[in-house]
Design goal:
C8orf32 fold; 638 residues; Immunoglobulin-like
């Protein structure tokens, strides 16, 4: 998507009637901006002024016309602050649909609370907030604020449109800095034409970008992250100072040197721990063997807590502190893991990453602080090991959906390097099921089902989290994730294989009520016991965005049915084969030694596909759904 940008900045619309100021009247919004929108951004101005390598001021002015209940969340303004940042001013104004003022608030009226997260031991982060939501739609909220920073480490991304179904009337973004080249920030445009205004005023340079009249978009199924579809300006300092630590961010190597400076001499272990490391690894030969035993040592000795205080948001605890306390955040635990491995003679590297199952990829060509997590990276003789150090239950070497297949920044002795974490193929993400079902003349059944979940499918329905839980929690998971209308769990058991590509097996004994339906002498049965696809992507008309499948997988089901002797199949359906760029599907039914055998295999391909192929995707899933819902008909001989 490319957006036209005008050099003309449209001022906020207002009219004065007598002594009353009428501002942001809804009637003044062009019809095309209201179409398909929950919110119209009347104004979104943001300026970031760099005063020195350790001081900056961020000022914002924004006004949202909220058209319906779906846009209500944008009536809430939240501003974070901590010991290194201060909210110096704030004002909020509520307008009715005609543009008349209903309410005004100031900084003293804002609510103030800790921003400590539920899993955090301590943070110095706080936030101020105010909610101007109103019960009569449409209405407009306007917020103005200024935050002073005592550091120059990051520059907030300018992304005026923050959600789908938001349109933009006007926006202005400016970066202001001294002409000292060391203070000149870097920037990267996303979905914005490279039209820029440069203003020189004495020894100060101001860069400005203006946007206007951007229509609302609607997120399409299986689309790239919305963040990547919206207009944005990423900015970052060149040189900076954070809590007395100087650094440069022009290159990833420069950024990595700053991280290394924070970590220096923080890998020292107590003598007792050094001795224990030697005892644990002395009889082991390979890097992987040593890494595995020390990773399990870490899991048994430590637990994860979050501690975010000042520079501590980026600097790990010393390894000896983690060793003594038995806890740490992701940075501290990863640094501790690297220290343990170093003591065993294993080379490992502290690594920064953007974690999250739905996290968008970092801008790898734009060095800046883009990370929210730390892990450990271990090169081996044959492979690469990635260690998630915050989990007490994670299988050794398994990253999972939280951090797999994305760019990370490894801090090595040769400098910082962008390196990709491991991916998992469709075949590795395997769900394999075998079942034996005995059905009586009334259509009721008794089934023994064994299902193995492997790779990323090990996380199906958060299965990985319940494997070490109580039997009651495991049974709850089974009840929730067994897609049969009427059944009773007679017995079950679980097994776990915590390898680098982990797997879990669940064995079920089920009592199935009315699995088949009877009509006269006929018994009707859907042979697909537990894996019927009903998903068909919604057709929104002409597709605008690429289709993105984050991971591929494979399902294989083999179901054996035993029916009463006096029933015989009336007809056996022909095998079904479906082939597409999106994957493969095969199913078949056959009679073998008096049993009816149903086999289903589906493979879904990972990848990015062009927008016109969306109709093919719909057909692919529609055909799978049709094949998954065939019925077998059995006729009684008596």
């Amino acid at each position: 998507m490319r957006l036209s940008i005008t050099a003309l900045f449209i001022a906020s619309i207002y009219i004065v009637y007598g002594n009353r100021e009428i501002k942001y009247a809804v009637r003044d919004i062009p019809a095309n901006l209201r179409k398909d929108a929950n919110v119209v951004i009347r104004k979104s101005n943001s300026s970031f002024r760099i005063l020195s390598k350790s001081k900056a001021v961020h000022r914002t002015e924004k006004a949202y016309t909220i058209l319906n209940e779906q846009g209500k969340k944008f009536a809430l303004e939240v501003i974070g602050y901590d010991n290194l940042s201060k909210i110096s001013s704030f004002s909020g104004t509520l307008y009715d649909s005609s543009g008349q003022v209903i309410k005004k608030v100031n900084l003293l009226e804002m609510h103030d609370q800790s921003a400590v997260s539920g899993f955090s031991l301590y943070e110095d982060n706080r936030l101020k907030w105010y909610d101007l939501s109103y019960g009569v739609y449409p209405y407009t909220v306007e917020f103005e604020s200024e935050v002073n920073f005592k550091f120059l480490f990051y520059i907030p991304t300018f992304m005026p449109i923050q959600d789908e179904k938001m349109s933009l009337q006007e926006a202005l973004y400016s970066l202001e800095f001294s002409n000292d080249w060391n203070l000149a920030p870097r920037y990267k445009l996303q979905n914005i034409s490279a039209n820029q205004q440069k203003i020189q005023d004495g020894g100060v340079t101001k860069l400005q970008w203006r946007l206007h009249n951007i229509l609302a978009i609607e997120k399409e199924p299986l689309a790239p992250p919305l963040q990547k579809q919206l207009p944005a300006i990423y900015a970052a300092p060149t040189t900076f100072e954070f809590d007395d630590y100087d650094g440069t961010m022009k290159t990833w190597n420069g950024f990595g040197e700053w991280i290394s400076k924070l970590n220096i001499n923080r890998d020292q272990l107590p003598p007792e721990t050094k001795k224990q490391v030697k005892e644990l690894t002395s009889d082991l030969n390979s890097t992987e063997e040593k890494a595995k035993v020390l990773y399990e040592y870490l899991q048994n000795k430590t637990r994860y807590v979050s501690i975010q205080v000042g520079i501590g948001g980026f600097q790990p605890f010393e390894a000896k502190v983690v060793d003594e306390a038995g806890y740490g955040d992701c940075k501290a635990l990863s640094n501790y893991m690297v220290a343990l491995l170093k003591e065993a003679g294993v080379k490992a590297f502290y690594t920064l990453i953007r974690a999250g199952a739905d996290a968008s990829e970092i801008e790898s060509d734009f060095p800046s602080t883009q990370f929210n997590h730390a892990i450990a990276f271990v090169p081996t003789e044959k492979d690469t090991l990635w260690l998630e150090c915050t989990s007490q239950t994670n299988p050794f070497g398994y990253l999972g959906t939280f951090t797999y297949d994305r760019n990370a920044l490894a801090i090595t002795e040769d400098g910082a390097k962008i390196i990709k974490t491991r991916d998992y193929s469709s075949e590795e993400n395997l769900q394999s099921r075998t079942a034996s079902v005995v059905i009586d003349a009334a259509g009721n059944g008794i089934a023994k089902v064994a299902t193995t979940y492997k790779g990323l499918q090990y996380e199906n329905g958060n299965l990985n989290f319940i494997l070490d839980d109580r039997l009651e929690d495991q049974k709850s998971w089974i009840l929730k994730n067994t897609p049969i209308p009427n059944f009773t769990v007679l017995d079950f058991k679980t097994q776990t294989n915590k390898s680098k590509i982990p797997s879990a097996r669940i064995d079920l004994d089920l009592d199935l009520r009315k699995l088949g339906s009877q009509s006269g002498k006929r018994l009707f049965l859907n042979p697909n016991l537990l894996n019927r696809s009903t998903y068909i992507p919604e057709n929104f008309g002409q597709r605008k965005t690429e289709i993105q499948r984050r991971f591929g997988y494979m399902d294989i089901d083999t179901i054996y049915y035993t029916l009463p002797d006096h029933f015989r199949p009336e007809a056996i359906p022909s095998p079904t084969t479906i082939r597409s760029r999106f994957g493969e599907y095969d199913s078949s039914v056959k009679v073998d030694a008096g049993k009816v055998v149903y086999i289903r295999r589906v493979k879904i391909n990972k990848g990015t596909f062009p927008p016109p192929s969306y109709t093919e995707l719909i057909d692919f899933y529609r055909n799978i759904s049709k094949a998954d819902n065939i019925k077998l008909v059995f006729v009684s001989k008596t």
